[in-house]
Write a structure and sequence with these properties.
Length: 131
């Protein structure tokens, strides 16, 4: 294989990626569940009978917290969707191929961001186009 450019990851490598993706997917689902639970339990914060100015301050911080939670929930849902798509690519044997350059994404990058569809080179090309 010396001198040949590797086109796909081996079955063993894909099994390793699948395991990593499933671990990340389970963590993201768990985190999403925790955030959704905390989001719904924040509806009653127990400040009904407190001093009015404190209540106003508390409501302001509650709104910010709700907005932050909503953003985190949205981000986690996006990550889950991306990880599920990565699992499909593993099964289709095209996992780890950059959608822009069509070259194999380095294993180190996939280990850090297992749902990525872009190599660093591909990402730079996309950023250049979007400027």
């Amino acid at each position: 294989m010396k001198g040949q450019v590797k086109k796909r990851y081996s079955l063993e490598e894909r099994k390793e990626f699948r395991k990593l993706i499933l671990e990340k997917l389970n963590k993201a689902k768990k985190d999403l569940s925790i955030f959704k639970e905390s989001f719904s339990s924040e509806q009653n914060n127990g400040t009904d009978d407190t001093y009015p100015s404190f209540k106003a301050f508390d409501e302001g911080s509650e709104t910010l917290s709700k907005e932050q939670n909503a953003q985190i929930v949205e981000h986690l849902q996006m990550i889950i969707k991306s990880l599920n798509a990565a699992l499909i690519r593993v099964d289709n044997k095209d996992y780890g191929i950059c959608r822009i350059t069509k070259k194999l994404i380095p294993k180190e990058r996939l280990m850090a961001v297992p749902h990525t569809t872009l190599s660093i080179e591909g990402k730079r090309l996309v950023e250049k186009i979007n400027k």
